[in-house]
Amino acid sequence: MKNETLAAQGLGWVDEATRAISPPLHASSTYLRDVDNGYRSGRAYIRADNPAFDQPEALLNALEGGAGAALFASGMAAAVTAFLSLGSGDHVIAPKTMYWGLRGWLAEWSADVDLVDMSDPGAVRRALRPNTRLVWAETPANPTWDIADLAALAEIAHRAGARLAVDSTCATPVLTQPIALGADLVMHSATKYLNGHSDLIAGALVTARDDDYWQRILGNRAHMGAVLGSFEAWLLLRGMRTLFPRVRIACANAMALAERLSANPNVAQVLYPGLKGFKGHDIAVRQMKGGFGGMLSIRVKGGEQAAIGAAARVKIWKRATSLGGVESLIEHRASVEGPDTPCPPDLLRLSAGIEDVDDLVADLEQALG
User: Fold this and answer.
1) Which of 19, 68, 100, 255 sits at 20 to 30 Å (Cα–Cα) from 146?
2) Is residue 238 among the annotated active site residues?
3) The pTM is what?
4) How far apart are CA 215 and CA 32, in angstroms?
5) What is the pLDDT of residues 54-96, one digit of tens each?
6) Which one from 146, 167, 184, 363 is the annotated catalytic residue?
């Protein structure tokens, strides 16, 4: 079966006890021991092994073509666990342009981290050291949507004895499968497109191999307790079953928005990988199949105050943090990220939802004046 069918049917799993199409919600935090003190059920305690994780983890693993998947309490919990599972003294290369929360954590982390332009493979190669063990990429990269060449980065990392990890939150497995391009680990903020309804917080990691590094990740998840609740796992699976149609509509809307806003006299620049003039467009065509994502940004003529003013005048778009939901969101990112942000002050980040695109365009046009 194709991935669209796997997602829509949740792998086709049916609850054997009731024959229910929708999975049951398992709320128990602990499990009964056998009389000989064993656990023949395979489960001992919910922090390490939650049956509510089985189906969404198996589905995400199938969509990404991995050898194992693990859910976390948030995208940050998933990413931080991947870094904390490295060895002492390991060197990390990460992008200059990336999710600001993780960039802030890396700046405070005591390990050795270099931030480089991940859209330039040469910059990554020059940053390598003998103790480099992880290259962390994000593509498209929030909030300027820079594109990293994953196949090239995988080759660079592997030649140096390092792993390539990819934050594929905005691409989703609908558009890009990093493991097929050579990545060793894939991260998702499942709060975003995988769930798609702005009603839970979750994260996920998918590995290309069940190796010692992956076992350390699983062990750290259990030890640190960075696990998802059962109800949130149930909601996540429900959201993943509509992943493909939601992402495809968002991609179509984002493409139409990018083209029409490019002609708006009050827009200085549109940042979207689907536009032919975009720096990483050719790479995006090669590694993003079926669309260029639902995220784009615009730089507003008149600077920061003009951008903030435009965001204040929208009526259909919602002024809110986050992305990947069915509703369209707009945000002035520099205000959110603070004085140390590399984000241009005139930039508005747009998360295209699944509404009628003419309504979305008309709302932005009146807001822009």
Assistant:
1) 68
2) no
3) 0.96
4) 25
5) 999 999 999 999 999 999 999 999 999 999 999 999 999 999 9
6) 167
Cβ–Cβ under 8 Å, residues 332 and 311: yes
47 is catalytic: yes
CATH number of the domain residue 42 falls in: 3.40.640.10
We report the CATH number of the domain holding residue 253 as 3.90.1150.10
Same domain, 225 and 91: yes
| β 203-207/68-72 pair status | antiparallel
Cα separation, 235 vs 237, in Å, equals 5
114 given a catalytic annotation: no
* pLDDT 10s digits, 323-351: 999 999 999 999 998 888 889 999 999 99
Question: Out of 181-185, 211-215, 311-315, 341-345, which region has the weakest mean confidence (pLDDT)?
Answer: 341-345
- Is residue 96 among the annotated active site residues? no
pLDDT mean over 307-328: 97
Per-residue pLDDT reduced to its tens digit, 213-263:
999 999 999 999 999 999 999 999 999 999 999 999 999 999 999 999 999
- Residue of 31, 43, 47, 49 marked catalytic: 47
Mark whether 263 and 322 lie in a shared domain.
yes
Q: Which of 99, 193, 213, 272 is catalytic?
A: 99
| Residues 158, 9 within the same domain | yes
The total of other beta-carbon atoms located within 10 Å of residue 212's CB is 9
Q: Which of 103, 192, 238, 241 is catalytic?
A: 192
User: Do residues 222 and 279 share a domain?
Assistant: no
